[in-house]
Queue: 3 jobs
Job 1
Amino acid sequence: MTLTGLGKESTSESGINWITAISMLLFHVGALAALFFFSWKAFFLAAFLYWVGGSLGIGMGYHRLLTHRGYKTPKWVEYFLTTCAVLSLEGGPIFWVATHRIHHQYSDKEGDPHSPRDGKWWAHVGWILVGKSMHHDTKTLSRYVPDLAKDKFHVWITKFHYVPITVLGLALLVAGGFPFVLWGMCLRTVVGLHATWLVNSATHIWGKRRFETRDDSTNSWWVALFSFGEGWHNNHHAHPVSARHGLAWYEIDLNWYGIWALSKLGLARDVYRYELSVPQKANEKLPTVPVEDVAPETETETDLVSA
């Protein structure tokens, strides 16, 4: 299987991605319905799957491992984290990683798939529902994800990313009926989607900036709580290769704790993390981050240490 075998969702004359839009609508309706079918079993199931998809999958897998290669794992661990990620309904790894690498190259500039400078709603979800930002052609994919394009598993699961979440849905239906489906599939997925989307929108609008990057990225503690540490976005844009985003002791970063645990278990190696050499004072001038340290093509970190 090659990149040419990956199908792209067609859009209407209005540019709306109807398959995506209808899917999102149905999941949001299911999330609202879940509130009328509450049970503690369903609640804890949803919380567990929220962590599996959002932390193991998106944060540790798609983002810090596949996109930025902030650490290395055995292939079976990489494939496991990737499978967790597709349970989040955010598509396959090749399109996700390509989109995020493009975002870093053109962050808050012309070409950024989801900059709030083009509108807050656009940055949050509009870019997914309208246009081709999530549906790149083969030439674009070959340029931005040559590493994943060579991997048969990543190509396969990108094409059939709906299979694992469909199997999960059927398993939940058998195990606990509609309450398990509504909570374990719809509600936790919708919350997870908005957590990811808040990183794209809110952390480029509101928050504090430790580093003077070339974009509008900020650190947001409340987005970090929802996204397992992805809300320390200014830290990340300043030092994208770093597997640790919460640089200060008080910046809770559950995704980093997970990567640290993998390293202690011998399942992660070459883990890189940026260290704050001098504590920053509240009124201290923001340190400037050179452009070449931000662009994905030259993510050379001189201040990184092994975990």
Job 2
Amino acid sequence: MADKIFKHSQHPHSRIKPVPRAPGARGLRHGVSLLPSLFTIANLFCGWACVVHAMRGDLTTAAPFIGVAIVLDMLDGRIARMTGTTSEFGVQLDSLADLISFGMAPAILAFQWGLVPLGRLGWAVGFVFVTAAALRLARFNIQTPSDKRYFVGMPSPAAAAVPAATVFYFPQGMQTYQQALPALAVVLVPALLMVSTIRYRSFKTIDLGTKRSYRGLIVLAGVIAAVVSQPHEVLLAMAYVYLASAFVGMALQRFRGTKQPEPAPPAVSSTPAAAPEPPPGPPEL
């Protein structure tokens, strides 16, 4: 019986034939770009470290990991574009890492900091933040922006910076129900802004290769010095200034649109005016 099965498998018509690939289909690439993926994995690690320290109650150590993840998230995409190693795999990996670092991690951090006294309302608000981050990332992956200078909705790293900077500035946390009520705004406001259509300025279009004046370096050095000398206050101010920047831009745009233009003065001709023609005389008889 085994010999018959073996002979049947050796028959030319019984062999398994490979399915022909559809025209234009792309095969799986055996390998990934190592350098940008390392930054993405480091971003993912920071999100996981934030969760671990937050669950231990060490909020002072947990909050800065989100700030480090934001820096790594800014670098991985730029490095991939500079080295020409962008890929669909990198885009999907970056989105999954962002969901952990800028969705799950800040939600757990905020929950341990100020949402625990609210009971079920607290963990429900934390879940809203995670859902908003997931929707924001999914929308970003399928959208083709008409103006690359702006994001549609608050980007998830900036939204995660709001609770992270708040916890970093005030790590003592909320102990009572009344004290925990302001924590709802810290979590819900950036969550709603992530799924909104309000435009936020994007810094991806800044070309670091172009020559600029020395004033830019002085400003950058001043920002670094401020962060190093007063990290709690400066990072908190940066997070909330960016949150409010979209509303300031909308107000300025509306003010400029409603402002009536001043009427232009009448043009003065440089050529002398022609003398008026004399009135016609009496008709001849």
Job 3
Amino acid sequence: MNKEKTQKFFTMAEMRKIPVDELKPGMRFDKPVYIDSNNMLVAANVSIKLDDIKKLMRWGVSEVETAGNLVSTEQEIKAATARATMTESDEAKRIIDDYNKLLTQRVPLIEIHKEACKAVANVHNAIKADGQFAIDEIDVALTKIIEIMKNYPNIFLFLYGLEEGKNYLVVHSVNVTFYSLLIGMALKYTPIKLRELGIGTMLIDAGMIKLPAYIMHKQSNLTEHEFNQIKTHPLHGYKALRQLGKIPEKSALVCLQHHEQYDGKGYPRGLKGTQIDEYARIAAIADSYEAQIANRAYRKRVFFYQAMKNMLSSGINKFDPVILRVFLSRMSVYPIGSIVELNNGTIGIVIGSIPQKPLRPIVKLIIDSNKKRFTDTIIVNLLEEKALYITRALDETEIGVNLFEVL
């Protein structure tokens, strides 16, 4: 072994791992800190900044490595942390802490989402072939979804964009499950009820498999005949779930009734009010919201705020008003990830809000009043900054940014 390789071997062997969630602004080591063997985070004796930590979280990095010792004092670390949070209220601190923890979960969420999509696709394939199917894979994936949602309730933020280039029916079903479980958890559902609800929403569009494939991808308006075919999919799905998969009645009703409307103007049976099973009433709200924020063959998606606005304006008669209020309370008027412009011309991304004051969220600024990107992390708490307010919500395409680049 030559000298260079020997030196590298012993250097790597001396490395110790530090979880990112243990890093604090102001930490300084006497040797470099590395993201991996090829990428250095900070050089020796250079303090770690809040922005460094946020980048690691955004990238999904869970730990860093160093062969050095911590040389900054406890007082230095406390002072640096205080400087980074000195303008934040206690409520804002909690929201920001939750947001920072959430940023570490994008990679795990993608893996769980991929597993869930595979499970749903397998069931869809079985139904297409009129074959019997089990839901073991659905159950495993659902358990993981429920677990990550309990720990990180806003994890739905990372669902955005996952439909691109993939099977829309499958991805939509999985995404609807996240939003439905969000409501179920807000309603304090037991684990058994969450499972029943989740099985139903994972297979919410199973009946669409029985329809001509071109209908799903048609870019022009459907004919009356085609729309009448669409209206048969809840019944096709219900029969398949009960006969081929022996899915419990409560779960299968989600598939059968999710297009019923609270005012009785839905399909296939024109049920109204509490004639519609509660799981289906939840799924109807989640289904409508998710469909709006996803790209479709025949239209572009709308952004989070506009989708929520549409739900409130046109959904008063369509949806259970109590469940709709629960969804609004949990998501807020400006859901996390919404891009907004403030009255001083700055643009930011909503990272959370207090349920009692949904119009005054916590905003991370990304673009200044001169339309230049901020290089530092600047958090504005609209609960405290009374002179500032939101003038409008924006789509990321309007300002030329990618949502995940500015989180």
